[in-house]
């Protein structure tokens, strides 16, 4: 079983719509590497291209995966798609989930 320790530092401001949300959950192994989570709200809008351009070197060296979660909760079933390189990992991980 995996454990996640979450530390939240937040500042309350006047209510407004978020444009870019960024968070970091540090891992205990290879903590200098990235797994990015995103969805359709962070694509094709002002800011997403500029963010990638600004972080291109780190993304190329340290990013190991991008998980698109624009339909993360939808319906009663589990549906996943990936590049072929992740197929065996997805199968292995889903076998560990109790249903």
TrEMBL record:
Molecular function GO terms recorded: carboxypeptidase activity
Keywords: Carboxypeptidase, Hydrolase, Protease
Protein name in the entry: Putative glutamate carboxypeptidase PLA3
Organism: Glycine soja
SUPFAM superfamilies: Zn-dependent exopeptidases (SSF53187)
InterPro entries: Peptidase_M28B (IPR039373)
